Amino acid sequence: MSNQNFLNALTSLLTTVNPAELFKVLATIRKDVEWPKDKDNITRIREKKHLKHIVGALQSNQRNVLNVALSILGNCLLDKDCSRDAVGHYNILSHLNQLLKRFPKDDSIIGRIFRIVGNLCQHRDQWANTIIDRKPQIVTYIVNFVTKVSKDELPEDESFSEATTIMAIRALRCLLNSHTIMTLVKTFGVLRAIGALFIKYCIEWQKNKSHENLLINIIRLLQDYSRFRYYHSIMEMRSTERGDSLIYLSSVLLLAPKRVVKIVMNFIRICQLKSELPVPEIFDKFIEVLQKHSIVEELNDECVEYLQCLCYLLEHPANRNTERCGRCVPLLVKALKEFKEPTCTSLECCILLIGSLNKYKYDDKLMLEQVKANSVEILLEKIHWLVGSSKLNTDHKICRKRKMYSVTSPVWKHFGLTYGELLEPRSPSPSDEELEVFAKFERCPSPPSPCSSSNSDLREYACSWPSSSPKSVSRDFSDSDSDDYSPVCSDADVSDYEGNSLANDEEKTTEDVEKATEPAEHVEKQSNNCDNIIDKSTLTNLKIRLLTEIAKLLKTYIKIKPAVPQLASEDLLIALLKCSGCFDWQHHSNIDTIDLICRILQSHDYLITLMRTNFVETVYNLTLMTHASKCHKCLQFQQIGQMILTKLTILAESGVGKGNIAHQILRGEMDLKKQLVLVMPYIIRNKAILSKLLINCGGLKILLKLMTEPSETEEKRKSIKVLCALASRKLSIANPRSQMFAEAVNRIEADKYEEPLTCENLVTIKLTDGSTLKADRDFLSASSDFFGRLLNGYFKESSEDEILLQNVKLKPLRCLLNLMGIVEKKSSIDVDLDLKTLLDVIVLCDRYLMNDLCLSLSESIERNRLTHQTVPQIYQWSLESGTNILRVECIAYALVANLLDDLRLNMFESLIDLGYLEELVEDIKTLLTRFLSISDSFGDEEKKQKSLKVHLKRMKDNLLKNVHLLDT
């Protein structure tokens, strides 16, 4: 029904002459031309040429007809095609000019004309140029209107609403473009008039906080004019009838902080004197507000906005001086600390704050002020947002790849583009308002360089600000027709023409018009907080940007002299290690955190401090291969660990490093000595240096003392681990079990001795327990020198058929007699016999001088029976039997066997519990000392390994020789 009324009204428009009927027809049309809801109706008006009759209605003398016609045209001209026809075909500019002359004091008509001018200019720069060229009287009238309103008092017969003033300001803003800036400023004096108006309402706002909406619109106009590099703009603003209007920017700073700061930053590019802009006053205002309130808890979004503006001002070198920066640094660090949760807004603010702190990198004094304010600890908290505060997690499944990366080339550098670059499309926009909206959806670039002053840089930087508070948003977007623009302005009966309904429609239309007039602002107003709409990839990108800014600031701290002690923090280095993209945090950035760690490790000041933490052990654990050598992840961890350990090695083996370590081991407190010796073997590769520190300075003695502590402590576990690392990885002591030949061996069942029945020369062996065993006298004499002399020499047993053997058990003797007959000289065998009996057999071999069989059986145990479970038993037997056989091999195996830490610890605990602590410590000390004394100046690796085997065998022979000397 409504659509039919609209069509009927259009038809009636062609024939209506009576003003009252014309008003009624126009009122009906006005109901159905709301933008953008009724865009089709507006198109129908243009296509049917009805726009001509509506424009023609502007010649009427009836105010109510003019108000409705102007309201309809205001909505229709939001369509660019209607604007083209109205200006080009129906000469609407002349009609508007005439109306301004006919009704110079009518607030409602004037306001709607101003609105039409603004709507026309928003489509193309062409219409602004056309208005200035063809009808400059309209611009002159608007400027004069603003000048008139800026006076303290208006003439008695004139009264203008705030809405009309806002429409005038909006029209002057929409008239602006690159072609009209000079004419508007210099010829028409727009900024001189606006500046005076700005001063008037700033004073009133300071008194009673009134006219906020109008001030916001003035500030928006100033922001748009400030974008153009035209110095005359500053001159005009400073020479208004009321004085220097730029000074008053600081007085309304809290009303629209971002816009005021943008105005100042834009004018900084073209100003000639620092005193031309109120930069000190703006800084003082921001600092005053931020110092009085908690950044996050009290002021919330508003304070965040002030903080962002302060950082934005600090971007430009002209705004930074020692006194001002000295006040800002503690404030920025405090603000950074108060952000506790990694929300979108918090991440963006932290990125901005850290970037601002890094602007002082050329002033060591200000950088030290940051460090004194615990900035490093705060940065660590922000890194924990990304990777958490848990320990380094290296657990992973075996990972194989078809193409293995080179060990000399870091894996994370094989990608051409960074993750952030792939997620960060940029499309320049002509206005700051659009960019502020897109900042919620696009990935934002880093802040521009302080040396950069291009307009594009400033636009891009605007993207880094999150959405304003709801209060500021509602202030920023208020271009609207006033309720005073009621089309029912005649003495006609309102009820007859549905005036109340029409007034409501007019109010709705006003809101919709403004939404269409400022589409970008409408999107920003309707959008929710960034935390609610941001997706996972954007949040990840923000975290990557945060890591980038933190890394840049840490690089600056690294260059400070003297060195910053907070950088030698285990938590910080582990957190940076976790950010490398190789652990749980699998995001690639263009920041190589491993390289950052290596830079920190270039300072000698950090060596002793880091050696006192668990950092060195953690990095060493990365070099241990959990899986096979083809596991890509293990190789990656190993590469990272070796890279960091190499940096520590360079420090430790330098003159300063080894001197500091030696001094602390000799003169330091016991706790410090323990901490140093527990990591020295991990980082010192030079055997000569390691030998001096461990032997000459007493480091090895401390390690062995820690190993023998009565209770199971962390230090005891670490000492055992480091002793094993020293033996296996630094001294290359051979594993006795792995050094045995892997050739096929004969498996022999030892306990199958059968007494000879047909032998002519039998001898009966009687044991202490009364048991007897028969054997061939000739076979015994031929197999053993001991039996040969006993049975065929000058002893009484040579003439007896029964001999007595003391301290011998039947089963070991029976196994010995069996093995004597079936084992060939120097052959490799595997004896099928329980370990205890086999060890007793070896004792008998040693006692009865059967060296070849003793060697074969010892090698059999060494090859097949040496495990973490049997080492304590074999070592105890070696000591208690007095043979020292396999004694060195047990120690060597315990130190270098490839075992899990828990199994190795249990094995050492069992060795210690045997009760031979002094012998155990001495054996380990002797073994390590001997290998530490071996020179590194061998040829190739094969010769080196051969020499190590010789030394191991020589130790074994010396032990056996000592035993025989004691026996004699």
Automatic annotation (TrEMBL):
Record GO biological process: anatomical structure morphogenesis
The organism of origin for this protein: Brassicogethes aeneus (Rape pollen beetle)
Span list, region Disordered: 465-518
Protein name: BTB domain-containing protein
InterPro entries according to UniProt: ARM-like, ARM-type_fold, ARM_ARMC5, BTB/POZ_dom, SKP1/BTB/POZ_sf
GO CC terms of this entry: cytosol
Record-linked CDD domains: BTB_POZ_ZBTB_KLHL-like
Domain BTB stretches: 759-820
Biased composition, class Basic and acidic residues, residue ranges: 505-518
